[in-house]
Amino acid sequence: MTIAPPDNDVLWARALLKSHRGTPALRGVSLGVREGEVLAVTGPRGCGKSTLIDCLSGLSPADEGEVWFNSSPVHTLGRAARERLRRERFGYVGPEPRLVPELTARENVALPLLLAGAPRKAAATAAAEWLERLDVADCARLRPADLRQDQRQRIAVARALAHRPTVVFADEPTAPLHRADRDQVLRILVTASRSHRITLVLATHDPGLARYADRVATMSDGRISAPVLVRPAMAVRPAQAVDPAAGQAVEQAVEQAVEQAVEPVPDVREEGAEQCSPTSV
Ligand SMILES: Nc1ncnc2c1ncn2[C@@H]1O[C@H](COP(=O)(O)OP(=O)(O)OP(=O)(O)O)[C@@H](O)[C@H]1O
Fold first, then answer.
1. Where is the ABC transporter domain (predicted)?
2. Which residue among 65, 95, 236, 278 is the one 20 to 30 A from 53 at the CA level?
3. How many angstroms is it from 25 CA to the middle of ligand 1?
4. In DSSP terms, which residues pair with 166 in a beta bridge?
């Protein structure tokens, strides 16, 4: 029997199973991602966050289970159709900036726009604007080999956002950055996503980064092990306006959930928030 995904979920996954060379990485993950929200997927190293991101984004299909995007099945698409979906509707930032070495920073950022059919000049202008937002405007004419790792990652973030995708998948996006740069880059990523109504799925083992999210799903050993915190008030506030006390409480709760893995997350909800069971995520 096929169960239709809920209308208000831009992404919806059911009962995902995935193994790497016989070792299970996902053991039955069901997850819904709402349009325009920032969903953090957190948990210790090796719990399956990257594998989940890869399955949701169509990079690497699950062995079993379903993934739906805007009520269309992704799990039944062939490789070419998945690649097209990824190129046109999704953005991706990984833990390592993967830029085209032959292209300048501006050309790298303009590339998804050009592939989507934007005129050359408009793509170059938009790329320059995104580089400016990410504080790397002065790198526009340089190639990746001439840039520092943190500059390359900022450019990768600009590239993921420039074509205004429906969903950005960010897998440990601050990994190559110095501590001082992490907050700034994440704020830009979150703020830009919110202002352009881009849905952001953020995988991170750092509970501190999960404070930027509207909801937090904690994974353990290939499963979503703890309830998702729902903070509707944060969905309408820019990242800069996050109440530090609420952010700290969420961070502590997520840290605790990661440590305890299977214990429920303590209730640190803001007034009016709801809490979902993993199956209704
Ligand atoms: N290509 C692969 N080949 C073999 N095993 C893999 C592969 N990719 C992931 N795994 C294994 O699958 C499990 C889940 O890994 P995954 O990278 O999804 O977790 P993660 O939570 O993202 O961890 P990390 O933060 O370290 O990337 C781990 O046990 C990992 O060793």
1. 11-246
2. 236
3. 7
4. none
What global pTM score does this model have?
0.83
CA-nearest residue for atom 18, ligand 1, is 48
Instruction: Determine whether the shortest distance from the Cβ of 104 to ligand 1 is under 6 A.
Output: no
Burial 30-65 (b: 16+ CB within 10 A, else e): bbbbbebbbbbbbbeeebbbbbbbbbbbbbebbeeb
pLDDT in tens, 254-277: 556 555 543 333 333 333 333 333
Q: Is 223 in the pocket of ligand 1 (CB under 6 A)?
A: no
From edge to edge, which strands make up the β-sheet containing 215-220?
Answer: 90-93, 167-171, 199-204, 38-42, 215-220, 223-230, 275-276
Q: Does residue 18 have its Cβ closer than 6 Å to ligand 1? A: no
For residue 195, the Cα-to-chain-centroid distance in whole angstroms is 16
CATH 3.40.50.1000 fits 9-280, yes or no: no
